[in-house]
Write a structure and sequence with these properties.
Number of strands: 16
Structural class: alpha+beta
Distance between the termini: 43 Å
């Protein structure tokens, strides 16, 4: 046992489980890559003010959950708690919006950090794949992103997830609703912290998970009753596009998400097999975020899907991913000359795109064959002095147990042929 362990609330990805995470990342990003989204990668830490402005100074993320640090030069930095603000900052810094081809469509994958109470499905270090479409106000974009996420989940075999959908209005109609909601909330029996939230961002009170709070919210004003005609029409178009694409969704008038920057379309992917941490991903439109962080007006939309929670959702449904074999051929040399010769064959196989491994350390035949079996290899190559003298190697099919001698010069080609 090592003296050190992973910090509380974090986890290590180790084989063979790490293969699931790689497969999930690949499945989520595949529809994006096929739809014009380019890959972007940002630093693991940013200026604290980027998140204070973008995510919202009153949010739990900024007030309670960010990991912050002070550099030797006195700068205040934070480990990124989410991806959108960082991606938008990077796009603005690189002037991607000035290239003349809007929207700027980007996808990303990485680790994020929040200081939260650790529990199953909620970690202090977590992994997400995200997508952002920057610079265009178009309900087709909102629908596209929701459809691509739905496509990604279905490609993994997930079926028991639900899409919750709502509209948060815009800068024209939301202030009117905000005032009406504040008036209603001020008369409720709420704790002091929640009362402070009423004055800063009352919509977030609607997202309070406590039963005693939700009970009091039964008669709260409904945002849908305050949407302006433009927001109503926009939302109806998103709904119509999803329906036409055969993507099922549920209207959820209490869905507000936890970040200040969302406007109009907001959505969440939930899985009922995960208990209290049912959200596996979500996102929405954030038309004012660019201006919040000092950029020009760039209406945008995006989402982030949790890799960790998607893996948990797969396990909850009993979905077994069809993972590629890590090793297709395992070479077992018997003797020094065979070590040199078979290592050359392994190198040739790898160059041909065949997953091949080698019995390192000079183990005997019995131990090496146990390793070959544990590797999951379909074929094992065995060679000793007598085989080399005859110019052959022994090729064993690990499924059928059949073994045959093949010419050494043809071994790599024969294996490549058999493996297709």
């Amino acid at each position: 046992m090592s003296t050190f362990q992973a910090p509380k609330g974090t986890y290590d990805l180790t084989p063979p489980d790490s293969a699931k995470f790689l497969a999930v990342r690949e499945a989520i990003s595949a529809p994006l890559r096929d739809s014009g989204y380019g890959y972007i990668e940002t630093p693991g830490f940013e200026n604290v003010e980027l998140f204070a402005r973008g995510v919202g100074e009153s949010t739990d993320i900024v007030t309670k959950e960010m990991y912050t640090l002070t550099t030797k030069g006195g700068s205040q930095l934070a480990l990124r708690p989410e991806g959108t603000a960082s991606v938008l900052r990077a796009a603005l810094q690189a002037n991607l919006h000035k290239a003349g081809n809007l929207p700027v469509k980007l996808w990303y994958s990485g680790s994020y950090y929040r200081y939260e109470r650790p529990q199953k499905g909620r970690y202090r270090h977590f992994s997400q794949v995200g997508a952002e479409a920057i610079g265009t106000e178009d309900p087709v974009l909102d629908a596209e992103l929701i459809i691509l996420a739905d496509q990604a989940y279905r490609s993994l075999g997930l079926r028991r997830f639900r899409i919750l959908l709502n509209s948060l209005g815009d800068k024209e109609c939301r202030p009117v609703y905000r005032e009406a909601l504040q008036t209603f909330l001020r008369d409720l029996d709420l704790d002091e912290e929640t009362r402070r939230r009423i004055e800063i961002n009352p919509l977030r009170v609607l997202d309070d998970k406590r039963a005693d709070v939700q009970k009091q919210l039964t008669d709260a004003p409904k945002l849908r009753d305050y949407l302006c005609d433009a927001c109503k029409a926009y939302h109806e178009e998103v709904r119509a596009l999803l329906t036409a694409a055969g993507v099922a969704f549920e209207d959820d008038e209490k869905l507000v998400r936890g970040l200040d920057y969302y406007t109009r379309t907001t959505f969440e992917f939930v899985h009922d097999g995960l208990g209290s941490q049912s959200a596996v991903g979500g996102g929405g439109r954030y038309d004012g975020l660019s201006e919040m962080i000092g950029g020009p007006e760039l209406p945008s939309v995006g989402w982030a899907l949790g890799v960790d929670r998607t893996v948990l959702a797969l396990e909850a449904e009993g979905v077994e991913l069809d993972l590629p074999a890590t090793t297709s051929v395992y070479a077992v040399p018997l003797g020094e000359e065979a070590r040199r010769v078979l290592f050359g064959v392994v190198t040739e196989l790898r160059r041909a795109g065949v997953a091949a491994d080698f019995a390192f350390g000079g183990r005997g035949l019995k131990g090496a064959m146990k390793s070959a079996n544990r590797s999951g290899a379909r074929y094992t190559l065995v060679a000793g002095e007598r085989d080399l003298a005859e110019g052959v190697v022994q090729l064993k099919d690990m499924e059928s147990g059949e073994q045959s001698a093949v010419p050494l010069a043809e071994a790599a080609a024969e294996l490549a042929k058999r493996l297709g």
